[in-house]
Automatic annotation (TrEMBL):
Annotated ranges, domain GFO/IDH/MocA-like oxidoreductase: 177-256
Family: Belongs to the Gfo/Idh/MocA family.
GO molecular function: nucleotide binding
Pfam families: GFO_IDH_MocA (PF01408), GFO_IDH_MocA_C3 (PF22725)
InterPro entries, sorted: Gfo/Idh/MocA-like_OxRdtase_N, GFO_IDH_MocA-like_dom, NAD(P)-bd_dom_sf
Coiled coil: none
Protein name (database record): Oxidoreductase domain-containing protein
Residue stretches making up the Gfo/Idh/MocA-like oxidoreductase N-terminal domain: 3-114
Signal peptide: none
Lineage: Eukaryota, Fungi, Dikarya, Ascomycota, Taphrinomycotina
Amino acid sequence: MLNLAIIGTSWITKSFVDAALSTKEYKLVAVYSRSLATASQFAEEYKLGKDACYTSIDEMCKDAKVQVVYIASPNSLHFEQAKQVLSHGKHAIVEKPCCSNTLEFIQLERIAQQSYKETGAMCIEAFRHIQEKNFKVLKDSLPKLGKIYMSLLPFASFSSRYTDILEGRLAAPVFSADFSGGCLLDTGVYPISFAIRLWGKPKSQQYFPYMIPQTGTDGGGTILLVYDWGIANIVTSKIFTSKATVEIYGEKGTLRANAITDLDSIEFVGNAKGTQAEQLAGPKESFNLAEEATEFARIIRDNDIQAAADLWQVSSDVMDVMTDLRKQNGIVFAAER
């Protein structure tokens, strides 16, 4: 069992902790927040005392009990906090995106390699959807299509925080350039990593965003990932909602999934008229993040450096693509000024 510490106390942190505990692979031992009261409130929910609460990441990481740290702070903080965690020889599980741009990623990669060499500590970016069992079913089903022509990968959900902007209130971190916010790094990262895990890094990419004038960040748009076989067409947004399904079109038929994340329905429909849909999805875990938590624990426990390297390559490719898409559209974060 891995002794888990957390940085951040948001809903995603609670979701990860609940999922991690459900796997019986983790034990929560420490909570970090800038506010001791906030850390204490979170800790109490899991029956931890005040001695498990910290307002210093360095002090928390000096706790000998801590083995792995889950980082779920605003995007712009991930890079520095991951470096801090690794410097103490602790494994780092970093919510996506692990960095603001490729330059930060290259630095973190160098630090992670040195940390592993010296202490065995790994750095893993938490793309939870590509760890779902049904994502792997979808990936394994691609040969059913024969030659692939095109794919549609929609992932769009209206954010209540956008209402704040429309009504003239201060932008939340998720939309703020100061915190490396915007749709691309918060929502678009899901279908981009989905595509890269299926087909690798695209030959080229292009983004047509809806920009938010008040923040200088993107609210969503259309992304084209160009591959030798064709185009992965992504529609992503935090300023409108789409209920469209994932579809991948091939010469022999179509693969259709209910969504980019939380896959519970996958079917293959042959191109021949009257063909019945073949249902492919298996049962889904009760906790949405349980599958990633289980796999990350296995990688750490088994010291599976090859699996860690495979995931890190996905992270590298995703970061390169997103950095280029922002550059195309003049989206600049405070971390880059």
